[in-house]
Amino acid sequence: MARRMIVKIGEDILRKRAKEVVDFDDNLGRLLDDMKETMVHADGVGLAGPQVGILKRVAVISPDGKHFYEFVNPVIVSASGSQLCREGCLSVPGINGEVVRPKKIEVHACDRHGRKFILKAEDFLANICCHEFDHLDGILFVDKMIKKENV
Questions:
Q1: 5: in domain
Q2: Backbone conformation region of residue 73, classed left if phi is above 0, alpha if psi is from -120 to 50, else beta
Q3: Residue range of the domain that includes 116
Q4: Is residue 112, in this structure, part of any structural domain at all?
Q5: Contacting residues for 25 by C-beta, under 8 A, at least 6 apart
Q6: How many domains is the chain partitioned into structurally?
Q7: pLDDT one-digit tens code per residue, 21-32
Q8: Per residue in 96-149, pLDDT tens?
Q9: What is the CATH classification number for the domain harbouring 125?
Q10: CA distances (Å), origin 23, targets 37, 72, 111
Q11: How far is CA 44 from the centre of its chain?
Q12: Which one is catalytic: 37, 70, 98, 132?
């Protein structure tokens, strides 16, 4: 595993739509492992492919630093409720803000081996998923922010 550089706001890749993963191979596994190591080292709870300069629809999430989720080609198929979330982003240092996100979501995705799975998430996990999956469409939390805080 290796740590990767985290792309910062202002770089074009963060505004591009990531491409579907078609090759479920060792390179994908290494990318996901590298992303986990990078996220943990940066004290993050989530990281998406574009944030490490890779335009692939992949994300890793760990809401508690102990349990890790890997998403390949994730799609939110349903969302309900709403919650006001305080967010920050490894690609947008120095800014936190409030964003309205769904309270509950259902995600369909694949694991690193191409096996499909469904995740029903709510509260903080739903918040992180929505934030990271937005990265896959070139959307940053600052685009949806309703209240900004400098840190």
A1: no
A2: left
A3: 12-150
A4: yes
A5: none
A6: 1
A7: 999 999 999 999
A8: 999 999 999 999 999 999 999 999 999 999 999 999 999 999 999 999 999 877
A9: 3.90.45.10
A10: 22, 11, 12
A11: 10
A12: 132
